[in-house]
Design a protein that fits this description.
Strand content: over 45%
Helix content: under 10%
Mean pLDDT: 96
Largest sheet: 7 strands, mixed
Number of strands: 11
Radius of gyration: 13 Å
Order of helices and strands: EEEEEEEEEEE
Shape: globular
Low-confidence stretches: none
Structural class: mainly beta
């Protein structure tokens, strides 16, 4: 059974940092593009960052560039999202997702992702 499990969320004050983890089982990490999505209350789900199975290229939406870093550890079959300089507008449930599509991942089309985790809550507040 394919499973993606997120962890690492929590409550942090503005300017703080968190590292989210996405542990995969049932699929080989290096064969899949992995994306982080988030959904804030009352808002649509949006892509945040991704790492493509093609050339291991990474992408970030403008609002997180320079603050977030996505990386993977093949030995642990896991993907991480390091989040620094957090802002209140980063508050959301964060989801990781895996897809096998054959193009760069910057479109953040939800239908491209076959497998999803259950999400982890990130709250940025003073």
């Amino acid at each position: 059974q394919v499973q993606l499990v997120e962890s690492g969320g929590g409550l942090v004050e503005p300017g703080g940092s968190l590292r989210l983890s996405c542990e995969l089982s049932g699929i080989t990490l290096d064969s899949y593009s992995i994306a982080w999505f988030r959904q804030a209350p009352g808002k649509e789900r949006e892509g945040v960052s991704c790492i493509s199975r093609i050339d291991i290229e990474t992408h970030y939406i403008d609002s997180v560039k320079g603050r977030f870093t996505i990386f993977r550890d093949n030995a642990k079959n896991a993907v991480y999202l390091q989040m620094n300089s957090l802002k209140p507008e980063d508050t959301a449930v964060y989801y990781c997702a895996a897809g096998y599509f054959s193009y760069y991942c910057s479109k953040y089309e939800q239908y491209d992702y076959d497998y999803w985790g259950q999400g982890t809550q990130v709250t940025v507040s003073s």
